Amino acid sequence: MAAEIVEHPEYATVCRTIEADHDHLVAHYQAHHLGVSKKYRGGAKLAATCVTFYVMRKGAQHARHLVPPFLDLAYKEGSHPRRIATDVCEILEQPVALSIRGGNAVFGADGEPGTVGLVFRQGDRDFLVTNAHVVTDPGVLPGPVTVRVPHSAVEIEGIVRRMDNLGAAEIRSDAALVEVALNAVAPGRFRGTDLILVGYGEIANNDPRRFFFVSKEFVHEARWAAWVPGGAQITVEGHDKTYASFHKLSVIVGQASPGNSGAVVFCLSKSGLVAVGLLFGGALAINEIWVFPIRRCLKQMGVDV
What we know:
This is Trypsin-like peptidase domain-containing protein. Keywords: Membrane, Transmembrane, Transmembrane helix. It comes from Aminobacter niigataensis. This protein has helices at about 10-20, 20-30, 130-135, 295-300, and strands at about 5, 35-40, 45-55, 70-75, 80-90, 100, 105, 115, 120, 125-130, 145-150, 155-165, 175-180, 185-190, 195-200, 210-215, 220-235, 240-255, 265-270, 275-285, 290-295. It is mainly beta. The protein is elongated, with a radius of gyration of 26 Å.
């Protein structure tokens, strides 16, 4: 007689079923992991509980080891002729921790948003770089900094360890170094791309390359427009300031907007991403961003590149 199929077994029984043969099931059926969930059919959620085999992708790689439609349930008091349905679900890519990446939103104590630029680890300490004017207003001591991780309720607090002087007569770097809890960042990673930071470079005058920056959940693209060797006036949190020695880039994909400040500008290489600039402002009416050389900003923060 065929074993009874149980649609609503106790979760403890299903967990015991998975744990009893977990390693074999994962290896033999080429699963990334197993879970207890409701069964889906044609995208619709059904009432029946099942053991779900989560795989990177369905398809030819599972042809040799097809997941069985049912598994025997493992009861605490011994064997019963009862089974539970299985399901197969794609996860498409390696899961990642909800860590801070370049492009995430960062908020100073005043609650105004900016963008996380670089994230990196030095020894047993995690850091991010953004603009000094993001973490505080000119003439105001910085308070706690908060980063919001997208698609979750996670908020991570940081402490400003170093920042540029926004009271200088001529500002040539607008950066802040923020320390966050260890393992809070995904070093060298940016929102919207699987590529990783592999180095640092410079923007040349009349540079022909494509440049990118990530902010507000969007990957913007820009092209070089001009180099400004002398001073130009810019309004920073209601204060008129003079910034000098920076590049101007024309945004060709996306729209420059408040909150982009602090984003790292990078370009692509054969091996990954090369950071070249730190975005601090721009002329929004003509969709233009203003960018300091990244190496200069990091040097100001005591970061050796």
